[in-house]
Amino acid sequence: MLSLFALLEIFYFMEPMLIPKITSSPSLVWIVSAIGFYIINIFLGLFMAFRKRTAQSLKIHRLLFYTIVFCLGYYLLMNQVHDENSWLDYLIGLYFITLIPYSKRWDILVHALVAVVGLTLLPLLIVLRI
């Protein structure tokens, strides 16, 4: 696990033009929005797992997941128009539309682990494009 000092050191040595590169790309903005929706969805899933699981929270959880898949699909579409997608882009998209929904049938902790792996794969798409 990274210490706070190591995390600050990473941000200190980060390339100063990284944020403008991400915001100037028409496809990478969709990945950033998918990451934001994904973080909200993970916190909602944690709330449902440990506190209260209602029909309304399940609907919101599902709607947020569909929003994430839409953002990822639009990223793949925009990236195909401006660039060419790599096989890794398609594999990550396939991971999101197959393994994460299928993992709902397993234990809640396994579903959470599969979801967290998905959250680590999304920034990988940004790193590969920059």
Q: How would the global form be characterised?
A: globular
> Into how many domains do the coordinates divide?
1
Count of DSSP H/I helices? 6
Largest sheet composition: none
Low-confidence stretches: none
Give me the strand/helix succession. Answer: HHHHHH
Report how far apart the termini are: 25 Å
**What class would the helix/strand composition place it in?**
mainly alpha
- pLDDT average, as an integer? 79
Model description:
The protein is mainly α and 130 residues long. It contains six helices and no strands. It is globular, with a radius of gyration of 16 Å. The mean pLDDT is 79.
Protein traits:
globular, 6 helices, mainly alpha, 130 residues
Produce the secondary structure layout:
Layout: H1 4-12, H2 18-24, H3 28-50, H4 55-82, H5 87-102, H6 108-129
Helix pairs in contact: 3-4, 3-6, 4-5, 5-6
Summarize it.
With about 130 residues, the chain is mainly alpha-helical. The chain has helices at about 5-10, 20-25, 30-50, 55-80, 85-100, 110-130.
